[in-house]
Amino acid sequence: MKPRAFLIISLLVIVAFLAVACGASTTPAAQEPVAESSESATATGCEDALGCVTVAPGDSIKIASALSVSGATESLGLDEQYGAEIALEERGDIMGFSLELQSEDDGCSAEGGQTAATKIASDSSVVAVVGHTCSSSCTPAANIYNDANLLMVSPSCTAPALTAEGSHVMSFLRTAPNDKVQGRVMAEFAYNELGARSAATIHDGSPYAEQLQQVFADVFTELGGQILAQEAINVGDTDMRPVLTSIAAQAPDMIYYPIFIAEGGFITNQAKEVAGLEEVILAGSEGMISPDFLSVTGDAAEGMYLSGPDLNFSGTRYDEFLKVYREVAGQDPTASFHAHTYDATNLILDAIENVAQKDATGNLIIGRQALRDALYATRDFEGITGQLGCDQFGDCADPKISINQVQGGEFVTITGASGS
Description:
By secondary structure, the chain is of the alpha/beta class. The chain has 12 helices and 19 strands.
């Protein structure tokens, strides 16, 4: 996807409101000092341990995005793309240098993530990356960026391993909630609120789906429930009846399949056609919280439960953001992570403002280690999605999760935000 033209003049009043309302800073922790930003800085060269990006007068500060903007998951990535664009347009410039968004498609796959990350990492003028969309693409991309001393802040890669001790790499941060929270919330809801005592899970082999269903299974078992089957399908499968028939033989109370729209749609449409599953509880996750999912499932999704980040943001900031979003997109948000992308982009921009310096010739110097330190030192950032702070493994989210149910062809939130 080519970079979209930035917003029209008529939106600037709303944007100005957002700039004031969302002006929280990336506050460095006392034990992690970062370089001060100064327009009169006299730095004459790069002394940063990881190197510097030098932006010449008249050039732009380049931010890359790597999001899933085509194919079956394009509604997820395009939703995020708008969030990034709005954040950059709102900011306008940093120390007199304009902002540029270089957009790449990550394809919501390991291959797509690797391709997009390799292209971005080969451009030494890229300061940081907003993305990726899917954990399957984030996993290889994080290592590529780490080798290139690039930072990424993902709005939606939720797999626990990405921020786990032993597997986390320093290039990776996220504003999306860790699925250790989401899996627990869904398991507790299933056991305590729905009264389910047995369950089966289905995943598509992706880090996102496999790890989320495993968290659900572990917590559900801890609560006293039984996991009767943990089945796997492949991305691109269309006939889900063999897997569903196998599950039906176990007679679970519930099937949890935290996957994406295409395969999730086939499971939803075919489940109630399988003998023994007529009354089974169907449940999924935010990968299917999209109008596209409702379009392909119709009445088959009625009554289904879906976990995901809580989108009931309070205050006028989100209301004003939505006004801009609707002007840009021509519609309401199509997925769950537009606001998380807006916050991710602003975390990056605030960090750049904190560390950037001008040298004697007017070049803007951005140290990569200093930028990393500034992001990891984020505390008490007032974002649209909540109050954000980054830990040593890159988890920055205010991890609020809600449960939604399909009622009358719409997603209706039926539980308030929970998580920790």
